[in-house]
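User: Okay, second chain of the day. Same drill as before: sequence in, C-alpha cells out.
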Amino acid sequence: MESYYTLIASLPPLPRDFDDGPIPITAATLWHRLSMLGQRDREIIQQVSDFFRWDRQPRDRSDAEIRDTHRRLVSEIRHPLVARLVNHRIEMRTVVAALRCQRDGLPQPEFPELPLSVWIRRHWDEPCFRLNHRFDWLSRFCQALDDDQPKRAQWHLFTELWNLWCRLDDHYNFTFESVVLYLARWEILHRWASQDEQRGRQRFNDLVEDILQTSR
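Assistant: Same drill. C-alpha cells below.
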C-alpha cells in the first residue's frame, strides 16, 4: 500500500487526552479499517496487537508462558518504531516491578536483559533507583502510591505513554507509522475506558502482579 491517506483519513480523530471523552471508534470498526493495509503491514500491525495482548496478560498465566511469549515477540519484531514502542513498555514494566519489590521489602525480581536492569541492581537501595532524571513520571507515580491512590498512579503511567506516542506521531504524516501510533493510542483509550473507580485498585494490583510475573 503506497499511500496510507485513505485509511488514515477514514479514522476519526483521537481526543487530546486519553481520559477526555468517549472512544471515537469501536474495536470492530478499527480492525475493519486496518484490513485496508497490505499483507506485510497487516503482519506488523498484528505484532503490535500481540504485544498489547501480552501486556495485559492475566495473572493465571505461568511465568514460563509469559517469558516465552515475550521472547517470541522480541525476536519477531523488526520494524524500528514497533521495537521502540515495545522497548519503552518493557522498561516501564521493569521499573514498576522493581519499585513494588523495593517498597515491600522483597528480593530483587528476575529482571529482563536490559541495560536498565543493571542500573537498577546497582542502585537498588537508593530512592527510585536514581532514575528520576531519566523517567520524569517516576516521582509522580511514587507519590500517588504514597498517597494510596492506585488509579492515579496508573493514570501517570498512561499519561507517559500517551504523551510519548503523541510526540512521535508529530513526526509522521499519513504514513504507516501514523497507523501504528493511532493503534497504540487507541489501546490506551480502550484500557482507560475499561476502568472505573470501584475496580481501580484491583486493576492496578493486577497490573503490578502481571509486571512481577513478567520480570521473573
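The longest helix spans residues 80-103.

User: Thanks, on to the next one.
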